[in-house]
Amino acid sequence: MPRFLMRISYDGTCFQGWQKQPEGRTVQGEVERALGVLMQKEISLYGSGRTDTGVHAEAQYAHFDTPEPVDHAFICDRLRKLLPREIWVHGVFPVRDDFHSRFDALWRQYRYQLLLTPDPMLRLYGWFPGYELDHEQ
What we know:
The protein is an alpha+beta fold. It is 18% helix and 21% strand. The protein has helices at 27-39, 72-82, and strands at 3-10, 45-47, 57-65, 87-95. The longest helix has 13 residues, at 27-39. It starts with a strand and ends in a 42-residue tail after the last strand.
């Protein structure tokens, strides 16, 4: 079975995290749904990590197997059309059959954004503690 790795970005505001849940909308669930429509078969997606409810990702990697060989550029193009606008597939790449997005990841990076002043345009992407920070300490 051919195996592919994808790089995904998403705005997690309206998702209950990455990992598929019995109830609620998740990023993994949305991508698996789109892959199922595209491949006309249930496809399992394996992420390099997970995010919590409301958390965003700039570069989440995940792999999946297809029942038959397909063009990876075709998969990427179709997924972009099938997925909701909060999720974007940057690329789909063929990988070796024993590759695993979680166990073969070389590193992970997390960024926390602290807002120095309240900003309604950034409220979903950063945290304002409710007071000005004392820069002297």
